Amino acid sequence: MASNVNPTVRRRRLGQELRRLRELKGMTAEEVAERLLVSQSKISRLENGRRSISQRDVRDLCGVYEVEDQRIVDSLMQMAKDSRQQGWWHAFGDIPYSVYIGLETDAESLRVYEPQIITGLLQTRAYAEAIIRGGSPEATEADNDKRVEVRLRRQGRITADTEPLRLWVVLDEASLHRIVGSRPVMREQLEHLIEMSQLPHITVQVLPFEVGAHAGINGQYSILEFADAADSSVVYIEGVTSDLYLEKPLDVQKYTVMYEHLRAQSLNVDQSRQLIERVAKEYAR
């Protein structure tokens, strides 16, 4: 799944380096924007890796920051060039969460809390089709089919023979009882979930109803971590019209602590699997 050049990660690393150069110069994003006659929001988007950056942008910023080492400039220019390449997901057209896919493709580990549904990386085709069509009632059939294919291809990260994504999932018990598609679809989905949970790099826990109020009561979120020390962890919160990416250490720490509480409040791995098995059998009746 992962390519040698991941444009999302390249943009992110390049943005971090540009921010570092700006801070070394003692300049604010507003001051840089005034010098280049651009908006402050453009500088912010370039630094957080959410916007494609051109080699001209890099050249102009290096000029403002008075970078004298041409090797540094050339390296940043190459990163800008790499960041404009397309990842595999671009072949599917306009995907709303393409930034997230880029991060997931390069991540070493992923922790997910899902309060309503089975998480995407562990969905069967039938379940994914029902979820996507139900969640996008006004989308065309072609668009929904495209999103299903993207979701299934993303699953290559957890089925890879070498260096698969380490996945830890906490599912609210509600996700087991919500009938998505049909009872046969749910039985197939839960049996698939049991099978996947037995892989050594995948952990699934269920947060039971009896817990009541809990640390994840405000909704779904994911924490992505990367092998390269230069890439800070990211908290991803999916929205209807826009998504939220949190990278500040204090934000990531807060969500990490919340996740540890969720894990502690959940059934252990064996208990979780037993509960999933019981619910799967109920769908067979």
TrEMBL record:
PROSITE patterns linked to this entry: HTH_CROC1
Residue ranges constituting the HTH cro/C1-type domain according to the UniProt record: 18-72
InterPro entries given in the database record: Cro/C1-type_HTH (IPR001387), DUF5753 (IPR043917), Lambda_DNA-bd_dom_sf (IPR010982)
Descriptive protein name: Helix-turn-helix domain-containing protein
Source organism: Streptomyces tibetensis
Lineage of producing organism: Bacteria, Bacillati, Actinomycetota, Actinomycetes, Kitasatosporales
